[in-house]
Write a structure and sequence with these properties.
Blueprint: E1 12-17, H1 23-35, E2 39-44, H2 46-49, H3 54-61, H4 72-78, H5 80-86, E3 89-95, H6 97-105, H7 111-118, E4 123-127, H8 131-135, H9 137-148, E5 152-153, E6 157-160, E7 166-170, H10 174-196, E8 203-208, E9 213-214, E10 220-221, H11 228-239, E11 243-248, E12 260-263, H12 267-280, E13 284-287, E14 294-296, E15 315-317, H13 321-326, E16 333-340, H14 344-354, E17 359-364, E18 376-383, E19 392-398, H15 399-414
Parallel strand pairs: 1-2, 1-3, 3-4, 4-5, 8-11, 8-13, 11-12, 13-16, 16-17
Antiparallel strand pairs: 6-7, 9-10, 14-15, 17-18, 18-19
Helix pairs in contact: 1-3, 1-10, 5-7, 6-9, 11-15
The structure holds cytidine-5'-monophosphate.
């Protein structure tokens, strides 16, 4: 599953490292969190510094490392209260018995325990210790207290330990921890989008990419559509709180995060799947696919052998997917696309009516800098007459930005006070 790394660039993680041999894994954890785009600041206890140096974490996090509570210089940079407020999440990994005990007792005799008391952010601890120390009654008692206090405890794994023992007490791998952090923020963002996003709770179906029309078992007719615009729209709809199904022709793009992808090949298959999706429930149908206008009348059962100087293949018209869906009784809000090389606005407005669409986005594919295969696009959006909405010019921008503006246009039309007839 692909992931947009910029998503978490506004999220701040304090990684607190305490004394334990697992501290070496925390260095990799910083890297993985940074890979996801998080801002990371590291707090180290005295015990941690016996295992690994602050310099390592400074280099990896790109930020000064916080070690002292009452150091005027460090406090002038970012004091403990400011640090506690800065954090969106505090992850203590590894968490020693000593730190867990301090948290449980509410002590505030070093930087980390003070930040713990001063923060409103969620706190996660990943205990790592000798299996006997893990099983010890005071440790279990303190952990129960932490759970009661709302701390999320990431259970240690079982295995061979640095001390030679075998049992529970190993810190999970840094990749797993970073992924849990990413999933937590992702779910939180999702919950907000599903409640307040522009397309909150809407079910959106999007067709994207080219279709592939078989000539024989090894050959086909297709086009150069890359599917980038449709995939960008799928991602934008998902971010806006929609449930998104992407009917993708053959393209080499990663599935956007959270989007359900169904791969289809021919126009007929794309239409069948579109009708099926309609039955499942669909509020908005967005047709970005470059559907082949014609398919081969009779697909050869076996590979056609070379013979003679000419080969005639007879083609028949494919069904118009978007127009077919628009004719259905329970029709969703219909969005079409038009790629033209001339009279762009006139042709697009004609298609809006002819295909009974609610909205059409058109672009001028004669421009080399936008459209097909490009990462940028510029579009003009028209709405069906009954919406009484002005056309919108979406100026040249990345396909992601254009997708966002299209989501806004869909939202505005859906919430237009004038009832469409
Ligand atoms: O007629 P034209 O191909 O220019 O129309 C483009 C619009 O119609 C796009 O939204 C495209 O996805 C959709 N379309 C379709 N099925 C077809 C042809 C086009 O859904 N067979």
């Amino acid at each position: 599953m692909s992931f947009d790394l910029s998503v978490f660039s506004n999220k701040n993680i304090i990684l607190a490292v305490t004394g334990g041999i697992a501290a070496y894994k925390s260095a990799i954890l910083v890297r993985r969190l940074k890979d996801y785009g998080f801002n990371v600041r590291v707090v180290m206890t005295k015990g941690a510094q016996a295992f690994i140096t602050p310099l390592t974490f400074q280099a990896l996090s790109g930020n000064p490392v916080h070690t002292e509570l009452l150091d005027p210089e460090a406090e002038a940079g970012m004091g403990h209260i400011e640090l506690a407020r800065w954090a969106d999440l505090i992850l203590v990994a590894p968490a020693s018995c000593d730190t867990i005990a301090k948290f449980a007792a509410g002590l505030a005799d070093d930087l980390l325990s003070t930040v713990y008391l001063a923060t409103k952010a969620p706190v996660w601890v990943a205990p790592a210790m000798n299996q006997q120390m893990w099983a010890a009654k005071p440790t279990q008692r303190n952990l129960n207290t932490l759970v009661e206090d709302g701390v999320h405890v990431i259970l240690p794994e079982s295995g061979s330990q640095a001390c030679g023992d075998v049992g529970l007490g190993r810190m999970p791998e840094p990749e797993d921890l970073a992924e849990q952090v990413k999933d937590y923020f992702h779910q939180a963002q999702r919950a907000i989008a599903e409640k307040f996003g522009l397309l909150a709770g809407k079910r959106v179906v999007i067709t994207a990419g080219p279709t592939r029309e078989a000539i024989d078992p090894v050959r086909y007719i297709s086009n150069h559509s890359t599917g980038k615009m449709g995939f960008a729209i799928a991602a934008a709809c998902y971010s806006a709180g929609a449930k998104v199904t992407l009917l993708a022709g053959p393209v080499s793009l990663d599935t956007p995060n959270g989007v359900k992808r169904i791969n289809v090949s021919s126009a007929i298959k794309m239409l069948d799947e579109s009708l099926h999706q309609l039955e499942e429930g669909c509020d908005v149908f967005i047709a970005t696919a470059a559907v082949a206008d014609y398919r081969v009348a009779e697909v050869a059962e076996h590979k056609i052998k070379k013979a003679g100087d000419e080969l005639n293949v007879s083609l028949i018209k494919n069904p118009d997917i978007v127009a077919t869906i628009a004719k259905q009784e329970k029709r969703p809000f219909m969005v079409g696309f038009a790629a033209e090389t001339r009279n762009v606005e006139e042709y697009a407005a004609g298609k809006l009516v002819a295909k009974k669409l609610d909205m059409i986005a058109c672009n001028d594919v004669s421009r080399a800098d936008i459209g097909f295969a490009s990462d940028e696009n510029a579009m003009i959006v028209f709405f069906a007459e009954q919406y009484q909405m002005e056309k919108r010019d979406l100026e040249k921008a990345s396909k992601q930005e254009i997708a966002q503006q299209l989501v806004e246009a869909i939202h505005d039309a859906l919430h237009n006070e004038i009832e469409p007839v």
